[in-house]
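HUMAN: Would you supply a protein with fold tokens?

ASSISTANT:
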Amino acid sequence: MRTAREVAESYWSAECRRDIDAIMAHYQPNATYQDGAGFLEGYDAIRGYYEASIRDFPALEVTIRREFAGSPDSSALEVHAVLTDHTGNRSVIEGLIAITVRDGRLDHIRCYEDPLRPEPAAGQKVP
């Protein structure tokens, strides 16, 4: 059985490749996803969210900074991500992502994230 951390790492690898089918293979059919924009339930709603993200941001980098392990099937992960749009602008999003897996697939994701902000230039301090 894969741990929540292992599922998250595999899921983010697929998301960073911008591979919609591989992303969705990580989800249970009736999974839920919640972030500051709202609550999504089910495969079709979640897929639509990722299709829009991939359309608007063709590149993504994700780094797990810290894990707050719950049980083998739940964890909270502090993440640092950089989204790149079609013009090459890079935006940072940081937060805590709480996940629950069931039978090796994502059952619930809840995101607590700071607002998207421009990535600072090299050598500049993060606001």
In short: The mean pLDDT is 93.
